[in-house]
Amino acid sequence: MFNRRDFLSRTLGGSSLLAVGSVVPEFLAATARAADTDPKAKGKDTILVVVELTGGNDGLNTVAPYGDDLYHKARPTLAHTRKDVQKLDDYHGLHPRMGELKQLFDKKQLAVVQGVGYPNPDRSHFESMDIWQLADPRRAQTTGWLARSIPGMSVSDAGVPGMYIGQDRLPLAMQGADGGVISLADRESFHLKLTGNGPPRQKLLQDLNSGDDTQADLAAFVRKRQLQTYTSLKKIEEALAGVGGNTQPQPQPRRPVKGGGDNFDLNSLTGKLGLIGRLINKGLGTRLYYASLAGFDTHSGQAEQHADLLGEVSTSIGSFFTGLGAEAGRVVLVTYSEFGRRVKENGSRGTDHGAASCMFVAGPKVTGGIVGKHPKLDDLSDGDLKYHTDFRRVYATLLDGWLGVDSRGVLGEKFEPLPLIDRAKKVEPPGGPVPAKNGQKATSPALPPPPAAPAVKE
Fold first, then answer.
1. What is the pTM of this model?
2. Which of 95, 103, 149, 351 has the fewest CB atoms within 10 Å, measured from its CB?
3. Residue spans per domain, the chain
4. Residue 30's closest CA among 151, 146, 178?
């Protein structure tokens, strides 16, 4: 007789369910039970997508102060002219290749956060990236800021709170979540090993979940989460159809994206965000996604290289939000890089490691506009822009105002929020506004306020 013990030891033990199933007691015990008690929250969790621009993005040419003569003087070959930029106002302009982000800005769905950095900046790629991912300029933390947010975050639909899309090792920002995060590099590395007995195994999982256990013990809780995990993994596999190495029929044709790669190619940012979008649309339930684009260490011949990179950033983000459709209102995307570049271009028509830079925060519920003044070009620190906004203020705003996680518990101290999020903002959904009822004005519904974060003990 194939009983539960046999199943757990012989069947689950050899399947990919344990890729996330083993973490249930540690990171889901506190949040999953709470989520189960609130049926109204099901399927309405907010989602944060983090995009890392690896190598030190030149913020000065990403958001160019084209109205400042000092900018053109410092960069005789690299500066963007008034005619070139995507104008944000009479002083600032996005890089000429960032037309999709300009469209989001015009719709008040893109915030441009200026002068972002941290005290005593470090120009080393490794040290500075660690600081951003630990959210700790002293590097005293041992776990990533996103990983630390998972225990305080409700996850109503999935056994996978966080997901990294990429070939490299799990980023430090997501390390230390005690199994609450998975990495996904390609389809084959995440194929469900259910060949030959998939339907029977799924039925057995369902039988286990609906068994006659009457007490709410940990074993019953684990069985329930394993079934949810199975469902989540099936959704991941479906979303991966058509990605590298798959020989099965594709559910939809490949759609090459001009200037941004293929939305089924996980080597491109377009492909990574395309997969994230499909997972969101399938209702996976994951609340944290992380992807990266490398190549921003532009010491020489920057102009063409940087244009291609920012073109991909803009195209991929634009395509991502378009593809989300009605789900877009649940998503905020943030970009960051470990540092900016020096104000003066070097002798190789490139730029060297600098300090303060800019961040983008995008989404229908974002309070669009320029946040903070551009750092002065006549008041530098050893040739670098001076920061005026600690990057942890951006993190704190996203944690408190979007994810509903107590930022002090994650960051170790309280940071003043920035005007980035408006959960009550009315956004017209794709296809037009929601039909009016009883003569009321047609609008899209606002998201509910974030759940109250648990108090942090002093």
1. 0.79
2. 103
3. 42-187+240-411
4. 151
